[in-house]
Design brief:
Blueprint lengths: L1 H39 L5 H17 L9 H7 L3 E9 L20 H4 L1 E2 L13 E10 L5 E4 L1 H4 L2 E7 L5 E10 L4 E6 L20 E6 L7 E2 L2 E8 L9 E4 L11 E3 L5 E9 L9 E5 H14 L5 E2 L2 E5 L2 H6 L8 E6 L4 H5 L6 E5 L2 E2 L3 H9 L6 E8 L2 E8 L1 E2 H15 L2 E3 L2 E5 L11 E6 L15 E5 L2 E2 L3 H13 L4 E8 L2 E8 L2
Antiparallel strand pairs: 1-3, 1-5, 2-13, 3-4, 4-7, 5-6, 6-7, 8-9, 8-10, 8-12, 10-11, 11-14, 12-13, 13-14, 15-22, 16-17, 17-18, 18-19, 18-20, 20-21, 23-24, 24-25, 25-26, 26-27, 26-28, 28-29
Length: about 500
């Protein structure tokens, strides 16, 4: 076998040699003819020589040697709008609060904490006794000084300084932040008109060239290049994950900076990288431009983000559930619970319905539905395509305002002894007649949490977390916190459903 492989290799080498000789044979006469022409006419004007040289270059291009691609023109146009961001962060020792600010905004032990690094953490040095410094990037979206960056870059900041490509520094103030999407809007006050860039109107295609510009390691104004590797990535950062994956190098300090297409439009904001080592390995994630438009528009108008709400608890449609209710696929989101007097209840949506589309756009799963609704304004009339008892229907409901309802629910839970952990609303099982004295019952599942992607259902009784008995929501929270401290990615719950016992792993997010 070794001799045979060697022979095959020799054949390949001979073929390559013949191909090389063929190309030489085809190219050499052209070179000889061109050289002969120059030798025969030694007094040719310089312009004619240039034309002959260009003709030769065109011939080379024609046989498959295109000129190299460059991005200098687009970089020259957009780079002045990108800024470095330096944030002094309040230190726990001098803070009035009892709880120290986390080193990153990610829960310890989660996949994001271990591998998906947000690359704008405090720098290793601490220039002052009571503060540390975070480095990041940002970009002007208007000539009057509005700058987009990441929430985790400016979180807990005492002061924010931005430095332009020209080297000028300005103090900036936070206009508003949105931790759920990790976006922030800050503003510089100055009498000059700043260069700014625009957000892309269309999402990029997989394979498109992209150019991140940022402030890696505080170097400022650094450009890298790559392509769009994937879209719609869910990396466990939050309920609205819909990241663009790129392969261009990004590092500490790029966080909050823009990624451009070759037309000079911002296709996304750099926010996280996949890196077991902490450095760039060519897998980075951007918040899409359409999400940035939605969030920044609201932050500029009102300083916070208001999201739509329909008042349902939803779960994924598994193949088994799809078969049971007569669906051909497992696409869509199954309605497991409806809040009284909610937009869903008023619109006629019922428990057991499967939402398959929103305003004509297909719903692939429960998280897809949560993102779609959240990005719509309260008061919007929305057409839901549903499947009920095997029949397709269309129902229109008017969205409510999510934050106000969430706050009201939190107060109700506090008064009733309920608590929310991992997106699950929990109550002691003994508070519900017929459930016994042991365990904690799930009374609701947050439609925006990762728990909707598990097999958990309303009415399940959690008996153990990590093989340790729980009898109150506080017990569950304590066990989950311990799992996080041990760098575990999920909490293992043993649940009772009717007379059946089973284990379910819930991501710690």
């Amino acid at each position: 076998m070794v001799e045979q492989a060697h022979v095959c290799g020799g054949g390949v080498n001979r073929r390559r040699r013949r191909l090389h000789e063929t190309l030489l044979c085809e190219t050499l006469p052209l070179v000889a003819l061109t050289a002969a022409a120059w030798l025969a006419v030694p007094d040719l004007p310089v312009a004619d020589l240039r034309m002959a040289s260009q003709a030769f270059a065109d011939e080379v291009d024609a046989v498959g040697a295109p000129a190299p691609i460059g991005f200098a023109d687009v970089v020259e146009r957009v780079k002045p709008a990108v800024v470095g961001v330096r944030v002094k962060i309040e230190d726990a020792a001098s803070s009035d609060t009892d709880r120290a600010p986390p080193k990153t905004p990610l829960p310890p032990g989660s996949p994001s904490d271990r591998f998906f690094h947000q690359f704008g953490p405090p720098a290793p040095d601490k220039p002052a006794h009571d503060s540390s410094v975070a480095l990041g990037a940002g970009f002007f979206v208007s000539g009057d000084g509005y700058i987009v960056t990441n929430n985790h870059v400016v979180a807990n900041g005492k002061s924010i300084e931005v430095t332009t490509a020209g080297g000028k520094s300005y103090q900036a103030k936070v206009v508003g932040t949105d931790p759920k999407t990790d976006l922030a809007l800050v503003k510089v006050s100055a009498t000059v008109d700043f260069p700014f860039v625009r957000l892309a109107a269309e999402p990029p295609r997989i394979g498109d060239w992209v150019l991140p510009v940022g402030n890696p390691f505080g170097l400022g104004g650094t450009v890298t290049a790559g392509i769009v590797s994937a879209r719609g990535r869910d990396i466990g950062e939050g309920p609205y994950d819909d990241f663009i994956q790129i392969d261009a190098p990004v590092n500490v300090g790029n966080s909050g900076g823009p990624t451009f297409n070759v037309r000079g439009e911002v296709i996304g904001v750099n926010t996280a990288i996949f890196s077991p080592s902490g450095g760039s390995v060519g897998v980075a994630f951007d918040i899409p431009a359409d999400t940035v438009k939605f969030v920044i528009g609201q932050l500029k108008a009102q300083g916070h983000v208001t999201r739509g709400w329909i008042g349902v608890q939803i779960q994924a449609v598994t193949p088994v559930i799809a078969d049971a209710i007569g669906l051909k696929t497992s696409d869509g989101a199954l309605i497991a619970h409806i809040e009284p007097n909610s937009p869903a209840a008023k619109g006629g949506i019922e428990v057991g319905d499967v939402i398959t589309s929103v305003n004509g756009e297909a719903v692939k799963g429960s998280r897809d539905l949560a993102r779609s609704i959240a990005e719509m304004a309260p008061g919007s009339a929305v057409r839901f395509g549903i499947v009920r008892d095997g029949q397709n229907k269309t129902i229109t409901a008017t969205l409510g305002k999510f934050p106000q309802i969430a706050e009201a629910k939190a107060e109700e839970q506090k008064e009733s002894g309920e608590a929310s952990v991992l997106g699950l609303t929990l109550a002691p099982a003994r508070a519900v007649p017929g459930l016994g004295e042991r365990g904690v019952v799930i009374t609701a599942i947050n439609a925006e949490s990762r728990a909707t992607d598990t097999e958990l259902q309303i009415g399940d009784v959690i008996l153990d977390v990590g093989r340790r008995a729980v009898n109150s929501p506080a017990d569950v929270r304590r066990m989950v916190d311990e799992a996080r401290a041990q760098s575990k990615r999920a909490a293992l719950l043993r649940i009772k459903r009717g007379e059946t016992m089973t284990f379910v792993a819930v991501p710690i997010a």
